[in-house]
């Protein structure tokens, strides 16, 4: 474990709290998109490895730090809602809130590195899994609603959106999956080098993360990074086994990712007082699914 990176994680988590969790994640997207494009062209892996998924803007550090700091601030009455991931906590002017962000940046760094040492390390997205675990820790430490929220309604709780919402989620996953997967197929057919094609899912992830700037400013756009990243990985796995036509696997993964995200939102991020990130839950689960399929079909 890199001790310099560990120390940096405190700063990254605190910086995530200063910016707010969602703004920090949008910055993650900027580094991921730019860094992946540079890496695709043969450049040094600075933007992705050290910035977007490292100790500065890594979601397990900066976003998780912002989430935990908001939960803490909410529990102390310093923030109206502990599940607020939009507000820049710098505006509170509270040093203890920012320190909590830094502490959870360190916690996220340690958890991620430990996960990479386990059998899950090679087959899941350790960063996303860490974001989910960190959110659970923050909920248990600062929240009062439990991991699945405190539902007080009279009707049965909804775990998977049905009816029109279910159809919409199917469509969302399908159209995002089609866009990602068949662009990947087109790139393969055009002879794009394998190394460049390999970072394409990160490019798509970065684009999706940056698009959340519109959500930050009040527009009702969907979060799609939990669809674009697994869909891209699925497309690459399918194409490795069956050529460009294997991109259809990415579409199927996109649909499953959309439905998984809906379940995670209903299960962990409803009727709550802190944020457990549904896209992070989806990404680590669907990455496992994709890698198990890849191990089964790719010789």
UniProtKB/TrEMBL annotation:
InterPro entries: DUF7973. The chain crosses the membrane at residues 50-74, 95-117, 123-142, 166-188, 194-221, 233-259, 279-297. Residues 4-144, 169-297 form the DUF7973 domain. Keywords: Membrane, Transmembrane, Transmembrane helix. It comes from the Bacteria. This is DUF7973 domain-containing protein. It comes from Cloacibacillus porcorum.
């Amino acid at each position: 474990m890199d001790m310099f990176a560990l120390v940096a994680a405190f700063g990254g988590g605190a910086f995530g709290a200063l910016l707010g969790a969602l703004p920090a994640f949008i910055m993650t997207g900027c580094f991921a998109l730019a860094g992946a494009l540079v890496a695709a062209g043969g450049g040094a892996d600075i933007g992705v490895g050290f910035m977007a998924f490292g100790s500065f803007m890594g979601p397990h550090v900066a976003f998780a730090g912002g989430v935990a700091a908001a939960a803490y601030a909410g529990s102390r009455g310093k923030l109206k809602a502990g599940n607020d991931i939009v507000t820049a906590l710098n505006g509170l002017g509270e040093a203890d809130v920012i320190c909590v962000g830094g502490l959870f940046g360190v916690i996220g760094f340690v958890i991620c590195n430990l996960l990479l040492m386990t059998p899950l390390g090679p087959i899941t997205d350790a960063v996303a899994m860490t974001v989910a675990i960190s959110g659970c820790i923050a909920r248990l430490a600062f929240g009062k609603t439990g991991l699945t929220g405190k539902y007080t309604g009279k009707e049965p709780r909804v775990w998977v959106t049905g009816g029109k919402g279910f159809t919409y989620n199917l469509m969302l996953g399908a159209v995002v999956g089609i866009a990602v997967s068949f662009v990947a197929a087109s790139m393969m057919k055009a002879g794009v080098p394998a190394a460049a094609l390999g970072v394409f899912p990160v490019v798509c992830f970065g684009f999706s993360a940056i698009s959340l700037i519109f959500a930050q400013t009040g527009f009702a756009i969907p979060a799609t990074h939990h669809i674009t990243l697994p869909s891209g990985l699925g497309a690459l796995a399918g194409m490795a086994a069956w050529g460009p036509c294997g991109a259809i696997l990415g579409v199927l993964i996109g649909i499953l990712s959309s439905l998984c995200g809906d379940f995670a939102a209903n299960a962990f991020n409803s009727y709550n007082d802190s944020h457990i990130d549904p896209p992070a839950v989806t990404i680590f689960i669907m990455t496992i699914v994709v890698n198990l399929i890849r191990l089964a079909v790719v010789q």
